[in-house]
Amino acid sequence: MTRSFLRPLIGAGLALLLGTGAGMGVRPAAALSVETVTSPLGLTAYLAADQTLPIVSMTVMIPAGSTLDPAGKEGLATLMTRLLDEGAGDLDSQAFQQRLEDLAIDLSFDAGRDTLTVRLRTTTDTLDEAFGLLGLALTHPRFDADALERMRAATLASLRQQAGDPNALAQKAWFARVFPDHPYGHDDEGREETVRALTQDDVRAFAAAHLSRADLSIGVAGAIDASHLAPLLDRTFGPLPDTQAPVVPEATPRLDGSTTVVPFDVPQSTAFLGQPGLKRSDPDWNAAFVVNHILGGGGFSSRLMDEVREKRGLTYGVWSALYPYQKAGLWMAGIASQNARLPEALAVMKAEWARMASDGPTAQERADALTYLTGAWPLRFTSTESVAGMLASMRFYNLPADYIDTRNAALEALTLDDLRRVAKRLLDPARLTTVIVGKPDGTP
Amino acid sequence: MLRLRLSRRRPGSGPGARLRALSGATSGRWPAAVGLTLGLVAHPGPAPAQVFNPETFTLGNGLQVVVLPDHRAPVVHQMVWYKVGAADEPPGKTGLAHLLEHLMFKGTKSIPPGEFSRRIARNGGQDNAFTGDDYTAYYQSIARDRLELVMGMEADRMAHLRLSEDDFQTEREVVREERRQRTDTDPSALLGERLGQILWGTHPYHNPVIGWDDDLTRLTRADALDFYAHYYAPNNAVLIIAGDVDVARVRALAEKTFGAVAARPTPERRRPGTLPPAADVVVTMHHPQVHQPELSRLYVAPSRSADPQGFAPALAVLADLLGGGSTSRLYRALVVDQPLAVSVAAWYRTDALDFGTFTLGAVPHEGVETTALARALDDQIQRLLNEGVSDDEVARARHRLTAGLIYARDSLSEGARVLGSALSTGGSIDTVETWPDRIRAVTPDQVMAAARAVLGQRDHAVTGLLLPAVAALAPSPSASEPPASGDRP
Questions:
Q1: What is the ipTM of this complex?
Q2: Which residues cross the membrane (chain A) (predicted)?
């Protein structure tokens, strides 16, 4: 039981730069210096070297997410990704896992919509073995038939679990409705019928086509220096082909302001809402980020929490967030409330949406948001894993190496007029498109 | 996507995953939902130690203070743990400890309603709180130069809570929504509540931390203030400060802030020592929201602080060798060798004042009856009890539980969570600091003695089968076929 609530996040690897209450953060320049490391083969990483603990963490984002699933093979990127630690080279699944355990190396692979995210953590005495195992997994995955069947069965079980989970149902239904003709419309895990049909050949073909070193976003933190890292990068990723990722079409979300109810016999309704947002590269990103913090991103200090939860007791959790996918920007929100009061809760949310669109934040809200966002910046950088994750995201979003030093000043430079202009430009309650899972009052 | 319930192979590499594995509190990931209803979600695992090397002192008013310096970033993490939780609630007032946790953010004579978290945020800090069976904890993360501010605010609300009737009523509705969100719309959580009732009988661990809804509707502002007055006192709390500080500064600030709060007598925590009569119970829940069955088995076990025979470290090793990742016994037997399950889990809850819990779980493979999976699980346990464990698998489990100890320090908050959990459940700093050495010393004989004591006692266990609604079973042609592998042992 906690006072907090979980916010749904969509897409692995996106959360880091998305401001999920904690804000986007890095510690001040004085404590963390980021250098750009370029390997002989031309692989580039951001590195924050820190010798305090004998630990190295690395995050790598590969543009091989579920948007690349061929039509009819939805779930392929996820299944391939789940097989990457199921055996490589001479090591079958059990041997590969045993090796990681013996060396106390943490290695995980997660597929999202835009990217496949790799996370590696090791102590310095097993550094070469850790990078070696990752390299082996990416360059010589076995994709054994028995492992494939295990991961297929696990994926099907996960799909069945989600079929009873109101939050998962609401998210899936929302994306399916809003992106009927784009890969963003399907869930990372695919659908039962597509997952059943995937073959070893499918998995091998996906890996061969999309596991490339052409466009890796690499962040490294901990006890390693540039001269040691550069050759390790080449040894690990050099054997991958240098093919460019295919172009994913721009998405045009169908955000028509409609409300869809998915009938579900539960005492509480879950709603997922969204309207057009913006991409991370948009010049108004920072302003929108601050506006969102004030609207619904800032936890207990946000307007939505104050109005819906604190004043009216209508929910345990209400939130809003920017989702800057590569091919579509979205401004999302969500809530769960007892069936009888969900309509009231949604009405309050929409009223706040409209109020922010028309008036923008107050001077006090701007000041409070900025002291929070800038002050909480260092809290994001208290582990090598979180630093590595941020650095990889900076590479992914084409942010400069000095972003950590300049980010707070960029936020502080935003005027109240900037925030009001961007709130007016973007926020539009008429386009808030809603999916409700439950039995909200007013529906049969 | 967040995948809440599928426990898949080795403990993930997410923050803290290894720590939980190291601690033996969990081995393998398990449904958040099941954990929640067992009161587990709110119980951060105890982690390993001799990495933390904390310093400690006690103020004149009885407040124990623990300091964990970490100078990598100019930030600090404060936690205040009260030695009171859901198991201390008066009869008929379930949910009171957790509701009070929410109400502690409503203000004091110097902090207006709604201002507590805002003031933290305006200073660049983050704050939250959680409640378990045996403790209630509050925390903030903030820049080091704001440490005095947050210490002052915690000290203030330790003694000066103000609570209006309106705020009480509104927050109670928030908690009821929390219950709907985390329990009433989640069949795993609903089943978990039933399992807890049966496992614990009359012991107060049988109530869900969030409380029964009927009780929640009857709680009053006076109940909350009464509970607060009884239990919230410096002599019934532990203060932990981690981060970019040293012990001298913490001591000075603690004297200045918490030192001003007067000690008060607090009730002794008296819990019934008896468990329900011996019975081997299977609870079957058919629920229309269920499309993927689940199996769970809970055993009463010693906790680290109530462990006269010294079984705790061996139980941690046992949980790991049974379900700690994809080379574990149960994963190999039930997922790899025969496809009866898609995931398995075993974990041991170490930190509890009265009893620990040893839990096994499995998600059946398509076409495998849950009862068949339960039989296969029993066969595996019987085999372990009959044939014993090998030196090698014990050595590997010990290694897995201790090899990544250094990772425990790669976090601002982990040490504070681990120590606070132990100190508020009858343990000491030593409990945490000597844990890795105790794990390293576990022998196969000790594992077997612990296994016989816990897994051999089916009359102090309960099995849960979560199944689709009965009506949903009939029409599907594939479901009416004989299960592909369900009859295999």
A1: 0.90
A2: none
